[in-house]
Write a structure and sequence with these properties.
heterodimer, A: alpha+beta, 2 domains, 10 strands, 56% helix, 17% strand, elongated, B: alpha/beta, Rossmann fold, six-stranded mixed sheet, four-stranded antiparallel sheet, globular, binds adenosine-5'-triphosphate, binds magnesium ion
């Protein structure tokens, strides 16, 4: 018997029992839909995190004042002011380092025309933009000469710009920051949320010199809140971390055995942790969904076993008229696989539809890849073969005389 | 043991030597008891014969037929079917023999449920590797010859007993086997329909030389055969040519 004839027989058997076929398929449909949905949500979260990390800038360290506290990592506790702009300049000279960006920050009240807006203000150097992987939407970043002359120039984050200017072009306009006039030289491209969930686009940037003297002020002149340090290559991160530590220990004259007054954090390593967590999350989601696929598979085995018992006589007749074991095995296996594959297809469409609904309703990033579809499909077929094989084998190994005599 | 009749023409299709069959059963106390059903059967059936096997209920007729049909295996003894030693054949080869060499007709018809008469007749051809449309064409031709072409698209439960049995006979014939095994083919049919079925068998035997082995309880059915064999408690107690063979030509 050729395969197409066996497929025909299997299809006929499935059609003869529409309700049962449909109900069995339902297990498969739900299983595959769940897998697709879960994987796409997991993949979406992962992609989102990867995007954020890529936008964060690569090979980054963050150096903050104060010792490593047992509670982990804080973006400058505010009272300790041991890091200075000169530390940042010294670190920038290290051979493994490509740039550093010292940061002082505070909040400021902005005015433009009749609009008020209160936001975070960052005083830094022009290198900040390249280190932090910021891109300009319109205008320019501020420059080294702005820094040297402590000019009153400002670069706006996209959200801040939107809030102050709506549809107007902010570049060339003058806004007031705590009542001092500043010239808007540029607007940044949007970046979205940071890994910690903060909106990075509601922010303004001015030269650190201007900030220190005119806006935020500084209790301890020259001290900074944190600095970003960019290493030249990913391979040199470990060496760079050691060199930075050595240099700061030396500059701060910290004796051996004394507690450091600064902390160096590898941001890339932190990002890796976040990516890892997202991966684990997608795996857990996938595993949960797989359980429903497994349950669907067991349902199929259950039905096929009942079907073999119920159709014992039919199997006997088929054997009497010349079906060999392979033909019987193939027919029952194909029946199970067709249920799985048809169920898998419907489940796939349902899963994609469900993912779309979730992305609309929950405003989440949902990613469906071909690999995912292939995986769900492969899994569905595997379930069909795995759970279909035993009943099919059972059917095929019946003795013709026993099958025929079965009532 | 009676001597085997050897005055039959043609060369042997079936050769059975000291064949025994027993079943192991559990009795009430759970002990295994052996129930021997066939005792040292010796039997030769030549090509072109029409044999009726008779005997009381439980005498082992169906058991013998199942062994002849390669559906069951004997406990001991040998069975040669057209010069092949059945005991040495693999499952696949047995399936091929059932498909090519033997046509089965059962008391309960044993058609595939919810499958049209046409497809029932065509199925053995599918198992022989013939394509579906070619199989259907041949099946329709055969149904036409048995006068059932108008019922080709009917399912078994839409056919009378006689019609179902004729479909079953068509199915048995589709691969042009040299041997037809019929276990009480008229058991579920009335007298008139039984006579029609027997006529069909007689014609197949006479015109196409198909060997027919048939089990029946009824003397007037057995009367259509050319040779009568009687089983009693698993022994052959009678094996003779039928001298008063009933001829059914009048019906045709
Ligand atoms: N699968 C089996 N297991 C155990 N015993 C069996 C089995 N099949 C048949 N027998 C026994 O073998 C004996 C012969 O059975 P068989 O069916 O061959 O009789 P029969 O001559 O065809 O009877 P009938 O005319 O009623 O059909 C019976 O006693 C029966 O109980
Ligand atoms: Mg019987």
């Amino acid at each position: 018997m050729n395969l197409s004839a066996i497929i025909g027989e299997a299809l006929r058997a499935l059609r003869q029992n529409r309700l049962r076929t449909g109900l069995t398929m339902l297990g498969m449909i739900i299983g595959v839909a769940a897998v697709i949905l879960m994987l796409s949500i997991g993949q979406g979260a992962q992609t989102k995190i990867n995007q954020t990390i890529a936008e964060m800038g690569s090979n980054l360290f963050i150096v903050v004042p104060g010792a490593t506290s047992s509670g982990g990592f804080s973006f400058g506790s505010g009272s300790i002011r041991t890091l200075t702009i000169h530390d940042a300049q010294a670190i920038a000279e290290l051979p493994t380092i490509s740039a550093t960006a010292p940061v002082i920050s505070g909040t400021a009240q902005l005015n433009y025309a009749a609009k008020n807006w209160s936001t975070l203000i960052t005083g830094t150097t022009p290198d900040y933009f390249s280190v932090g992987n910021w891109k300009i939407e319109s205008g320019t970043f501020f420059t080294e000469s702005d820094l040297r002359s402590a000019n009153r120039v400002v670069v706006l984050g996209s959200v801040t710009a939107q809030n102050l200017f709506s549809d107007e072009d902010p570049v060339g306009k003058t806004i007031r920051i705590t009542n001092r006039p500043f010239l808007v030289v540029g607007v940044l491209m949007a970046k979205g949320q940071s890994l910690t969930g903060r909106d990075q686009d509601d922010n303004i940037f001015i030269p650190i010199t201007t900030s220190e003297r005119q806006v935020t002020g500084n209790q301890f002149p020259g001290s900074i809140r944190l600095m970003l340090v960019q290493c030249k290559s990913a391979d040199e991160m470990d060496i760079a971390e050691m060199e930075i530590t050595q240099l700061l220990l030396q500059r701060h004259r910290i004796a051996k055995g004394k507690e450091n007054d600064f902390t160096v954090r590898n941001l890339t390593a932190l990002a890796d942790v976040a990516t890892g967590a997202a991966k684990v999350m997608s795996m857990v989601l996938g595993a949960i969904a797989s359980v429903s696929l497994l349950v669907g598979g067991i349902g199929i085995m259950n039905i096929m076993l009942v079907s073999v018992t119920e159709r014992t006589r039919e199997i006997g007749i088929r054997m009497a008229i010349g079906a060999n074991q392979r033909a019987i095995l193939t027919q029952f296996l194909l029946e199970a696989m067709m249920i799985c594959i048809m169920g898998g297809l419907i489940g796939l469409l349902l899963g994609i539809g469900g993912a779309w609904v979730v992305s609309q309703v929950a405003d989440m990033l949902i990613v469906i890849t071909l690999g995912m579809i292939g995986l769900a499909f492969l899994f569905a077929s595997a379930v069909g073969i795995f759970f279909g094989f035993y009943p099919a084998k059972k059917a095929a190994s019946l003795k013709p005389v026993d099958a025929l005599r079965y009532e | 043991m009676l001597p085997i009749q050897t005055n039959h023409v043609g060369h042997s299709l079936i050769r059975i030597k000291s064949l025994c069959k027993s079943y192991n059963l559990q009795d009430a106390s759970g002990k295994t008891v052996t129930n021997q059903v066939l005792f040292n059967i010796d039997l030769i059936i030549n090509q072109g014969e029409f044999v009726a096997i008779m005997g009381h209920s439980g005498s082992g007729k169906s058991t013998l037929m199942n062994i002849l049909g390669c559906l069951d295996t004997p406990t001991s003894g040998s069975y040669w079917l057209s010069e092949e030693n059945v005991a040495t054949l693999t499952n696949d080869e047995l399936a091929r023999i059932r498909n090519q060499k033997i046509g089965f007709v059962f008391q309960g018809f044993n058609l595939l449920k919810r499958v049209t008469a046409l497809d029932n007749v065509a199925t053995p051809l599918l198992y022989a590797g013939v394509g579906r449309s070619q199989s259907r064409k041949q099946a329709l031709e055969l149904l036409r010859r048995t006068g059932l072409e108008n019922f080709a698209m009917h399912q078994p439960n839409q056919l009378s007993g006689g019609q179902q049995q004729r479909v079953a006979i068509s199915r048995a014939l589709i691969n042009q086997p040299p041997l037809i095994l019929a276990d009480e083919p008229t058991g579920n049919l009335d007298t008139q329909t039984s006579r029609e079925i027997m006529l069909l068998f007689q014609q197949l035997n006479r015109d196409q030389g198909i060997t027919i082995v048939l089990v029946t309880h009824e003397d007037d059915i057995a009367a259509y055969a050319k040779r009568l064999i009687r089983l009693k408690d698993g022994h052959i107690i009678y094996d003779k040519n039928n001298d008063n063979e009933a001829i059914l030509d009048k019906l045709s």
